[in-house]
Design a protein that fits this description.
This protein is α+β, with helices and mostly antiparallel strands and 257 residues long. Among the domains are: 93-131, Low-density Lipoprotein Receptor (Irregular); 135-256, Lipocalin (Beta Barrel), CATH 2.40.128. It has helices spanning 2-29, 33-91; strands at 101-103, 111-113, 142-150, 159-170, 173-185, 196-204, 211-214, 223-227, 235-241, 248-256. It has an eight-stranded antiparallel β-barrel. A two-stranded antiparallel sheet has the order 1-2. The relative contact order is 0.09. This is Hemoglobin linker chain. Disulfide bonds join 118-133. Keywords: Coiled coil, Disulfide bond, Signal.
């Protein structure tokens, strides 16, 4: 059949033309069609590897971010658990005279003299006696107090300013540093009382329960105490009390400015 023979002949001619053009390109111009094809395949392979590498790097970055987030959450949960443990321990009897002794806790509970707290030598197996010795009210620090209620003071201030003049650790009594301060009433207010009281007292370095105590500065016998909760170093809960500390007649929140 002439048409079939012509069709076959055309296909053969096309194949021959491709072969001839490739051969001429190699000999006359240095072309190498196979090399170009191989080079294209190599580029595609490299591009694919780069894409996979980028995917792996992104996955690794995501894994690191997720891991860091989990670690942060774990530390937060651990801190919350420790806070809860401290609160529960305060509610339970320590088995010691808390006014003069510290319960070391741990596997070997021990009632340690409060005079040995923060003396620079670890006496509790748990190390509790030397863990909480930072100066929370250092010299030069200023604290602003806002009253919750006041049933007894002469001036009935809304706010007070406590300026720590000196925080001094005594070598022979390191668990009760001496503190001197000045107290102003309603600072910044037009009709405020200009009286500035001088306060003398000490910081009781009870681990987890630091208490700032000032003796009565006036003849009314009202003393000033402020208790830190062991978790926040920038504020304490204050009370105005009679000298025996049994009659609380005013409360305030004192925060470092």
């Amino acid at each position: 059949d002439i048409s079939v023979r012509q069709g076959v002949t055309m296909k053969e001619i096309l194949v021959l033309l491709c072969l001839v053009s490739g051969s001429l390109g190699r000999h006359l111009y240095g072309w190498n069609v196979e090399d170009k094809c191989d080079a294209g395949k190599e580029q595609n392979r490299i591009a694919g590897q780069k894409a996979r590498l980028e995917d792996l790097q992104n996955s690794l970055a995501g894994f690191k971010e997720d891991l860091q987030s989990r670690i942060t959450k774990g530390k937060a949960y651990e801190e919350d658990l420790n806070k809860l443990r401290r609160r529960l321990s305060k509610l339970e009897p320590s088995g010691c005279d808390d006014a003069t002794q510290l319960q070391c806790g741990g596997k070997k509970p021990l009632c340690l003299s409060r005079l040995l707290v923060c003396d620079g030598s670890v006496d509790c197996d748990s190390g509790l006696d030397e863990k909480d010795c930072d100066a929370l009210t250092p010299s030069g620090s200023v604290w602003i107090g806002t009253f919750v209620y006041d049933k007894c003071t002469q001036r009935r201030p809304e706010k007070i300013r406590l300026s720590i003049e000196n925080y001094k650790v005594i070598d022979y009594l390191r668990s009760f540093p001496e503190v001197t301060a000045s107290l102003e009433f309603d600072p910044g207010m037009v009709d405020r009382d200009d009286t500035i009281l001088s306060l003398t007292g000490h910081m009781d370095l009870m681990p987890g329960d630091h208490v700032l105590r000032f003796a009565p500065p006036e003849s009314d016998g009202l003393a000033f105490i402020c208790t830190f909760d062991g978790e926040h170093d920038d504020y304490c809960l204050g009370k105005i009390v009679r000298e025996d500390e049994t009659d609380v007649c005013a409360e305030f929140v004192l925060q470092r400015s």
